[in-house]
Design a protein that fits this description.
Layout: E1 4-9, H1 16-29, E2 32-35, H2 40-44, E3 61-62, H3 65-71, E4 74-79, H4 81-90, E5 97-102, E6 112-113, H5 117-125, E7 130-140, E8 146-149, E9 152-157, E10 164-170, E11 173-180, E12 182-187, H6 194-197, E13 209-215, E14 225-228, E15 233-237, E16 244-248, E17 251-256, E18 261-275, H7 281-288
Length: about 300
Amino acid sequence: MVHTVGLVLHPRRDSAPAIDTIMGWAAARQVTVLGLPDEVGRIDSPNAGSDPPGGGMGRAQAVEAAELADRASLLVSLGGDGTMLRSMRLIAGRTTPVLGVNLGRLGFLAEIDVDELPAALSAIDGHEFTVEPRMAVRSTLPNGRQVTAFNDIALVRMPGHGSAAISITVQGRPFVRYAADAVIVATTTGSTAYSFSAGGPIVSPTVEGVLVVPAAAHSAFNRALVLSADEHLALDVLPSSGRLAVEVDGEVAGHLVAGDTMTVTAVPAAARVVRLGHTTFYERARRKLQVSGSLEVE
C-alpha cells in the first residue's frame, strides 16, 4: 500500500492539473503528500479540482530532500526527463519506485502523460504495475564530493582551453587514449542522451553495462567502448589536456586538471521506475529519436 507519496516538480512547467489529481487521490485514501520546501507552495496552491467525497484536499508537508527520500513509499516526478533524473538521484539506493508523469515533450523516462494519471494511480492501487531497475554510475571528485548519475558523467573541454585528453584504464590496464571535445561515461539509460549525440549505440536500459564514448574525437581511435558493470574503470587526465568540466546528468559538478584521476563505478538497481506496460523503450526511442528507414526497406 502507498501510505506516503513524494512529489518532485519541474521548476517551470504547469503542474497544476497533475497536482490536483494526485491531491484528490491522496485525500480519498488518507495518503500523506510530501514536497520539497521550495516546491510545496506550488503543491498547495488552490486549483480548480473538486474535493473528494467526505473531506477537503488536504495539504502537503514540506520536508527536506533526505526526509522525503526516507519517508516516501512512492515518488511522483512531474516534468520531463530532467525532473525524472533528479527524482531518481534523490532516492538513489532505495527501493522507492518512481512514477514519471510527462508535462512536456516526449521523453524516455516518464511513463505517462497527465491525462493518463488517474488510470495510473488506480493501477498502483491495484498493484497492476511492474518496477524496472535502473543502473547508475558513481564517482568521487578530487574535492571529495561523491556524485551519482543515471544518464552520464562527462568530462568536457572548457571554452578557451585544450581538448579533453583522457587515458582509459580498464581492470587496472591502460586500454586507449582519447583526445576529444568530451569523454562520456554513460549508463545504458543514458545511451539515448549525450552518448547518442556523440555517436554511441542505443542500448536497452535493462542491460547492466557502462558506455565510454568520445565526443568529436581528434584521435585516430574514435570508437565507443561497452564495459561490464563490474569492470573497474579509471579516467586519467593527461598532461596535454585542458581544464575539464565534470558534468553529472548535464549539470557541472566540478572540474579536473592534468594529473587528476577519476574512477567510475557502476551501481546496479540504484533506482526503480514504475512501468505500466503502455509503451516499450523501443517505441519511445523510435518516436523521440525519429528512427526511420528500417521499416520502409522492402
